[in-house]
Amino acid sequence: MEQKKQRMQELVELLNKASKAYYQEATEIMSNFEYDKLYDELLALEAELGIVMANSPTANVGYEVLSELPKERHEKPMLSLDKTKEISRLKEFLGNQKAFISWKLDGLTIVLTYRNGELEKAVTRGNGEEGEVITNNAKTFKNLPLKIAYQGELILRGEAVIGYQDFEKINAEIEDVDAKYKNPRNLCSGSVRQLNNEITAKRNVQFFAFSLVKADDVDFENSRICQLEWLKEQGFAVVEGYEVTADTIETQVAYFAEEIKNNDFPSDGLVLVYDDIAYGQSLGRTSKFPRDSFAFKWADEIRETELLEIEWSPSRTGLINPVAIFKPVELEGTTVSRASVHNISIMEELELGIGDKIEVYKANMIIPQIASNLTKSGVKDIPSACPACGGKTEIRQVSDAKALYCTNEDCSAKHLKSFALFVSRDALNIDGLSEATLEKFIAKGFIHVYSDMFHLDQYAEEIKSMEGFGERSYENLQKSIETARTTTLPRLIYGLGIAGIGLANAKVLCKEFHYDMEKMIQLTEEELAAVSGIGPVLANAFVAYFSKEKNVEEVKRLLGELIIPEEQVNTEEQIFENKVFVITGSVEHFANRNEVKEVIEAKGGKVTGSVTSKTDYLINNDVNSTSSKNKKAKELGIPIITEEEFLKMLEG
Question: Which among 325, 412, 495, 498 is least surrounded, fewest beta carbons within 10 Å?
Fold first, then answer.
């Protein structure tokens, strides 16, 4: 008895710690599969012993919300649902009743209140008792009606979600790999609970109603299905669902199981609710669950396989993530061979060792995870050296979990941003080396310095076998690399990432020192600071960069890899030498303003973006415009000239 009580306490603490990590700190210290297994073990112990601790996750609906948004108590507690993975349990629940079965969407539950036909309030589920008021944010949901025909008080519940396509698109736009969202649910939660609803509006959040709480003076014929049809008539998107009985439940679940492969919205199961409203209400509730509805969680398709290796993947922050590589298996219709293990704590929990027989599954039928370890040989060979740079590693305790970090400040993985700049459009312009791809190549040790990018062919077979790559992707990457070999010296200098040296400054320097890289490497701060537009700060950064022997050696290696055509010496008369122009408005005699800029620069002048006391001329065909640039020029006594006047200056 005492042993069982002690185990129950252990489970309560472990599950609460996992929930806190997941919901409040956006980290994972155990897999979903493991959480469900431990939760079921706790339930069984509580039933056997007749004891439920006050802090048990089976007794508490959720954690307190932590944000600056206003909070509000719900009129009725928002309970979670009892759940099963067995269709037989759903049949038992149905009996001879008719029910509505629908997706259990994996987003953020919201309660909406409408009065006089307008949205008055939106509150998140929060901890079930108290939620956060997000009314202004809800008004930006893509498919939510702000006005409806019904003029009485309407209260309904639904799920705010972000689809996989939008999730991938938003994540692709985030340059910082470590800042990317882990899944659509995390992204949705962060988007809905923003303090600035302008951010919410850009995230393409959608709302799907799943329950009507109150709408007086409307005859719903005692039917939940009728309620949802009425909500559709009011303009709400309603969660996809169908009428079902004990005779049809298996067929309907099979339909959803097949459809989830094509469904853009994340779902972690199905929900079954009695259609007969009065019957459902007559059943009441338990301390945690309503008795009129039931959740069905997908019975995970589990495959046994063999762990081949743990791949350690370094990131920009120094964190080195463990990834399990196993013999390929078919799961939910696709072949999988790798799964993130997240951190050392989960590895230790699974007692994960190379060669172990493991069981794998797809969480929510999407994300590969390790369910269990059958042989448990134990964690060995945590690398003492970083796979990217060879620097020393150390294990740190972060948010209740142990994680591996590289301690080398000069680790190539930590310089991901500089590699990304080097391949960017205005630098070497190597298409196919996205930041995510660079991170993978750096982690595998393919890239340590810039010049390594021109020798990726020595890893051809490894690259072709990588997830997301293949023969065609590899060939396209090689073509892009070969194309990038022919470039210009300003592009190369800009790509080196010297602090403050943009492409325009790089062009100025190259022009000033006649495209002689050998000479530029040896320039002094005084020589550089004397160049118009450079100044002492940039001069110091330039000299500091080339004072490091390793940087000089790398530039020389790059010059050996690249083809830099000789620049044509400008023989045009420098009539605009030391003159500064600003160009605004539309042009008529040139293709665009950039063409005007090129003419000015070819004749020794400089073009800037804003009018200052150093500006000599503002070119604007609308001389009498009240634009901010015109006003500023007039205040400073700077001549505003038309394109015609500029052309006359060219003619002399």
Answer: 325
pLDDT of residue 136: 87
Entry pTM: 0.52
User: Helices (H), strands (E): how many in the chain?
Assistant: 24, 22
556-590 b/e with 16+ CB inside 10 Å = b?
eebeeebebeeeeeeeeeeebeebbbbbbbebeeb
Write the CATH number of the domain with boundaries 489-561: 1.10.150.20
Does the pLDDT at position 59 exceed 70? no
Mean pLDDT of 542-561: 93
CATH code for the domain defined by 303-406: 2.40.50.140
- Say if CB 261 and CB 298 are below 8 A apart: no
- Residue/partner pairs of 570-577 with CB below 8 Å, 24 or more apart: 570/511, 570/602, 572/602, 572/603, 573/603, 574/603, 574/604, 575/603, 575/604, 575/649, 575/650, 575/652, 576/600, 576/603, 576/604, 576/605, 577/603, 577/604, 577/605
What pLDDT is stored for residue 637 in this prediction?
A: 92
Cα–Cα distance measured from residue 431 to residue 461, given in angstroms and rounded to the nearest whole number: 20
Average pLDDT, integer, range 325-341: 84
How large is the average pLDDT for residues 402-416?
A: 84
Q: pLDDT for 358-404, tens place per residue?
A: 998 887 666 788 988 999 999 988 999 998 888 999 998 876 788 89
Domain ranges in the chain with CATH number 3.40.50.10190: 580-651
Q: What is the homologous superfamily of the domain 412-484 according to CATH?
A: 5' to 3' exonuclease, C-terminal subdomain (1.10.150.20)
pLDDT for residue 330 is more than 90: no
Residue range(s) in the chain whose domain bears CATH number 2.40.50.140: 303-406
Which tens digits make up the pLDDT trace of 103-156?
Answer: 999 899 999 999 998 899 999 988 888 888 998 889 889 888 888 889 999 999
- Order of all β-strands in the sheet with 241-244: 83-84, 293-296, 267-274, 99-105, 241-244
With respect to CATH, is domain 71-296 assigned 3.30.470.30? yes
Instruction: Provide CB contacts within 8 A for 483, sequence distance 6+.
Output: none
Nearest Cα to 462, choosing from 273, 325, 565, 258? 325
**Burial (0-12, 13-18, 19+ Cβ within 10 Å), 497:** middle
Show which residues are catalytic: 104
The 3 state secondary structure assigned to 487-515 is CCHHHHHHHCCCCCCCHHHHHHHHHHCCC
Type and span of the H or E element at 374:
none
Compute CA distances 518 → 484, 514, 515, 521, 552, whole Å.
22, 11, 9, 5, 10
Identity of the residue numbered 646: F
pLDDT of residue 365: 62
Q: What pLDDT score does 15 carry?
A: 85
To the nearest whole number, what is the mean pLDDT of the chain? Answer: 85
User: Please, which residues bridge with residue 244 across strands?
Assistant: 99
CATH 1.10.150.20 spans which residues of the chain? 412-484, 489-561
How far apart CA 447 and CA 467 sit, in angstroms, is 18
Report residue 596 as tokens: 């005007």
Architecture of domain 2-49: Orthogonal Bundle (1.10)
pLDDT in tens, 92-113: 999 999 999 999 998 999 999 9
Q: Please tell me the distance from the alpha carbon of residue 606 to that of residue 597, in angstroms, as a whole number.
A: 8
- What homologous superfamily is domain 580-651 in, according to CATH? BRCT domain (3.40.50.10190)
Spatial CA neighbour of 296 closest among 336, 340, 333, 260? 260
- pLDDT digits over 210-235, tens only? 999 999 889 999 999 999 999 988 88
